[in-house]
Specification:
- This is Family 43 glycosylhydrolase.
- Keywords: Glycosidase, Hydrolase.
- The chain has 319 residues and is mostly beta strands.
- The strands form five sheets. Strands 17, 18, 19, 20 and 21 form a five-stranded antiparallel beta sheet that branches. The protein has a four-stranded antiparallel beta sheet with strand order 1-2-3-4, with no helix packed on it.
Length: 319
């Protein structure tokens, strides 16, 4: 388990330098008292491990910028990839408050060693486009959801793709969650594209997405709690980490057929491969026994595939 006595820890993501696993995580001081206040005080911390169990905290990666900036409120969830020239890119969500509400956009920082990060002067590189994505002006959601960038190489070598937590512009307010999509030839310049899924799949938002090929089975991983689901789906579950069938890394994704890997005791799941080749799931501890927010990151949970579906060998497995 990874825990900080002075701070809550929640969303996280990984990079592998060939010798150590690097975990980047959101954290905020418990001196806030109210765990819901953590979102507007989030910084990006950094820890390293050889086994995904025992972690050593190192220097933080990023904190919020001085105003005015796209990330002058908080720095939120992202992903890390390595350019062919050896440069590491940390894509992350920048949050800012406007008169209309919270707006989320995507930026990046670079590093030569995964330890010291420098923001791009071109930030932000992506934001919600009302041609395809809901914005605050639509008045349907509590914020402008455009966050949690998951970046990966094109399977056929044609540049890079980014999946984004976003919302479509049609349908009931609680059922507009979509897989946002952008493409880049070089990781520096980005072209926003229409979403890879349609609204109406039962989720108001698909948080902390990740796409992986687990033992030959493509899977879309995301997280969603009951309060952010369509009403009909929320009647039967507390929510948690979900896995949706995928035809490939770029879909089609059957979000409506997603199955729970955990209940709400664990959230923001990430798949990662250990040195022995075994895929495991890590998630942060969300709900405690009394429903209280926990804010620690649990140990790895083995996963497997059966009949084309991802399963998790977890004590908190919901189905």
């Amino acid at each position: 388990m990874f825990a900080l006595p002075e701070a809550w820890v929640w969303d996280f993501w990984f990079a592998d330098d060939g010798e150590r696993h690097h975990m980047f995580f959101l954290y905020a001081s418990r001196a806030l008292h109210d765990p819901d206040a953590r979102h507007y005080r989030a910084s990006i911390g950094h820890a390293v491990s050889e086994d995904l169990v025992h972690w050593t905290r190192v220097t933080d990666a990023l904190v919020r910028a001085d105003a005015p900036a796209f990330d002058d409120l908080a720095t939120w969830t992202g992903s890390v990839v390595r350019h062919p020239d050896g440069t590491w890119f940390l894509f992350y969500t920048g949050s800012t408050l406007t008169a209309a509400g919270n707006v989320q956009r995507i930026g990046y920082a670079t590093s030569s060693d995964l330890m010291t990060w420098h923001r791009s002067p071109d930030n932000p590189v992506l934001e919600a486009d009302p041609r395809w994505y809901e914005t605050l002006a639509d008045g349907q959601w509590h914020d402008e959801a455009f966050r949690d960038p998951w970046v990966f190489r094109d399977p056929d070598g044609d540049g890079w793709h980014m999946l984004v937590t976003a919302r479509g512009r049609t349908g009931p307010a609680d059922d507009r969650g979509v897989v946002g999509h952008a493409w880049s030839p070089d990781l520096r310049s980005w072209e926003l594209r229409p979403p890879l899924t349609e609204p109406g799949q039962g989720f108001g938002q698909l948080e902390v997405m990740q796409v992986e090929n687990v033992d030959g089975v493509p899977v879309l991983l995301f997280s969603c709690l009951a309060q952010d689901m369509a009403q009909e789906r929320s009647r039967t579950t507390t929510g948690g980490v979900w896995a949706a069938p995928a035809a490939s890394a770029l879909g089609p994704f059957d979000v409506g057929a997603a199955r729970q890997l955990t209940d709400s005791s664990r959230y923001s799941g990430r798949l990662v491969r250990r040195r022995d080749g075994q895929w495991v799931l890590l998630a942060f501890d969300h709900d405690g026994p009394g429903g209280e927010f926990v804010g620690t990151i649990g140990d790895p949970i083995p996963v497997a595939t059966s009949d084309g579906l991802l399963t998790a060998e977890a004590a908190h497995t919901a189905c």
